[in-house]
């Protein structure tokens, strides 16, 4: 995978890109508060499976630039995605977790033409559970002054994800942190992002339901069986809105599916893309 930049709607988006550009493209979009590093192993496996993979840092996250106007509405994320898609020779498959999935769903459902060949939503639907979403937001707000060390940040993650074995080596976490001039480590996102979510929620459920109704491309919803963000009822409602959608539940996973059950998750996504012609022979 090689680093590359794309122009979004007034921001510059960082990405890891791999695979032959002539092969079917897949765009990976992480969740709120994450970075493209969350897709590392999945991205490499998809490249090995014959795809051209673009793993994006969303605006205000990772190495992508922050929105100088503070625009972190879902419309802005969707506009960025459309800009990236416009650089490709043919519509890509879209794989989005949480915020990335909402971005993909809006971009696809509100476009007048087919901008994507397939859509995979990772533990997100047209609506999310308020309590589960609040848990995510509280974690993101929890350390405004940052951490004295990477190990201290790892302690915070372990407290938030107690079901996961804590890694013996914390070096991978550094990709999600930035070191300030004061020597403290802070999460690699614009603090304005979470403040904007507090002021105006990302989701208009009615609007997103209508976007879902308009999705006509092959679609897969992957839900963590222990998710506190997408309830079983919300998943059932999404399937009524998109009757042709495939539904997979990973019983042991919570909201962060790609991290909780990465090998299983990657196999599920790869199988879906193969079934729908998104791989080279």
Structure summary:
It contains 10 helices and 10 strands. The chain has 281 residues and is of the alpha/beta class.
Name a few traits of the molecule.
10 helices; two-stranded antiparallel ribbon; alpha/beta; 281 residues
Radius of gyration: 18 Å
Percent of residues in helices comes to 25-40%
Overall pLDDT, averaged? 91
Q: What spatial form do the alpha-carbon principal axes imply?
A: globular
Helix and strand sequence: EEEHEHEHEHHEEHHEHEHH
Helical stretch count?
Answer: 10
Portion in strands:
15-25%
Uncertain ranges: none
**Head-to-tail CA distance between termini:** 21 Å
For the secondary structure, the number of strands is 10
Largest sheet: 8 strands, mixed
Structural class: alpha/beta
Physical arrangement of strands within the biggest beta sheet: 1-2-4-3-5-6-9-10
Task: Note the topology.
Elements: E1 2-7, E2 12-18, E3 25-29, H1 40-48, E4 52-56, H2 74-85, E5 93-97, H3 99-109, E6 118-122, H4 130-141, H5 150-160, E7 177-179, E8 185-187, H6 191-199, H7 205-213, E9 219-224, H8 232-241, E10 246-250, H9 257-260, H10 262-275
Parallel strand pairs: 3-4, 3-5, 5-6, 6-9, 9-10
Antiparallel strand pairs: 1-2, 2-4, 7-8
Helix pairs in contact: 1-10, 2-3, 3-7
Q: Can you give a write-up of this model?
A:
Helices cover 36% and strands 18% of the residues. By secondary structure, it is an alpha/beta fold. The protein is globular, with a radius of gyration of 18 Å. The two termini are 21 Å apart. The model has no long low-confidence stretch (mean pLDDT 91).
């Amino acid at each position: 995978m090689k680093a590359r930049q794309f122009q979004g709607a007034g921001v510059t988006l960082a990405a890891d890109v791999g695979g032959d550009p002539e092969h079917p493209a897949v765009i990976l979009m992480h969740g709120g508060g994450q970075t493209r590093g969350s897709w590392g192993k999945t991205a490499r496996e998809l490249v090995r499976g014959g795809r051209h993979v673009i793993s994006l840092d969303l605006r205000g996250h990772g190495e992508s630039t922050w929105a100088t106007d503070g625009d972190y509405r879902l419309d802005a994320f969707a506009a960025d995605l459309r800009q990236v898609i416009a650089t490709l020779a043919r519509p890509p498959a879209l794989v989005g977790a949480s915020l990335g999935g909402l971005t993909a769903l809006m971009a696809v459902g509100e476009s007048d033409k087919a901008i994507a060949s397939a859509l995979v939503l990772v533990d997100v639907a047209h609506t999310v559970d308020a309590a589960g979403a609040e848990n995510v937001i509280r974690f993101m707000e929890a350390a405004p002054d940052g951490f004295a060390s990477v190990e201290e940040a790892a302690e915070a993650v372990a407290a938030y994800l107690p079901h996961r074995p804590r890694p013996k080596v914390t070096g991978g976490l550094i990709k999600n942190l930035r070191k300030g001039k004061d020597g403290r480590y802070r999460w690699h996102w614009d603090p304005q992002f979470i403040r904007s979510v507090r002021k105006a929620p990302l989701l208009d459920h009615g609007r997103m339901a209508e976007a879902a109704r308009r999705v006509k491309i092959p679609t897969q919803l992957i839900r963590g069986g222990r998710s506190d963000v997408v309830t079983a009822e919300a998943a059932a409602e999404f399937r009524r809105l998109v009757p042709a959608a495939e539904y997979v539940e990973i019983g042991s996973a919570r909201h962060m599916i790609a991290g909780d059950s990465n090998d299983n998750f990657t196999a599920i996504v790869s199988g879906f893309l193969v079934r729908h012609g998104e791989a080279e022979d």
